[in-house]
Amino acid sequence: MNATSKASWMVAASIGAIEALKDQGVCRWNYPLRSLHQHAKNNIRSYYQAKKLSAQSSSAISSKVNNEKLKQSEESLRKVMYLSCWGPN
C-alpha cells in the first residue's frame, strides 16, 4: 500500500472508532465531565482565595505584634535617654 492509501484507511478507521464510541454513549459523558471540571476549578480557586485571606490576616496580626514591640522599644529608648540626660549624676 502506498502512503495515501494508508492515510485514508487511518482516517476511515478513526471515524469508525468515533462513531462506535458515540453509539456506546460516550458523548453523554461530555456534560458531566465538563461540569465536574468546572466544579473543580471553582473549588480550587476558592481554596486559594481562602488561603490568601488567611495569609493576609496572619500578616495583619504579625504587623500588630511588631507595632507593639516597636512601641515598647521606643518607650524603653525614651526612658534611657531621659535617665541619661536628667538622671542622678
Mean pLDDT: 77
Question: Which segments are poorly predicted (pLDDT under 50) over 5 or more consecutive residues?
Answer: none
* Coarse morphology: rod-shaped
What share of the residues lie within helices?
over 70%
Number of helices: 2
> Biggest sheet: strands, sense, closure?
none
Order of helices and strands: HH
The N- and C-terminal alpha carbons lie at a distance of 111 Å
Q: What keyword list fits this structure?
A:
mainly alpha; 2 helices; DUF3774_wound-induced; Wound-responsive family protein; rod-shaped; about 90 residues
Itemize the secondary structure elements and their pairings:
Elements: H1 3-23, H2 30-86
Structure description:
The protein is built from 2 helices and no strands. The protein is mainly α and 89 residues long. It has helices at 3-23, 30-86. InterPro entries: DUF3774_wound-induced (IPR022251). Pfam families: DUF3774. This is Wound-responsive family protein.
Task: Please give a quick description of this structure.
By secondary structure, the chain is mostly helical. Helix content is 88%, strand content 0%.
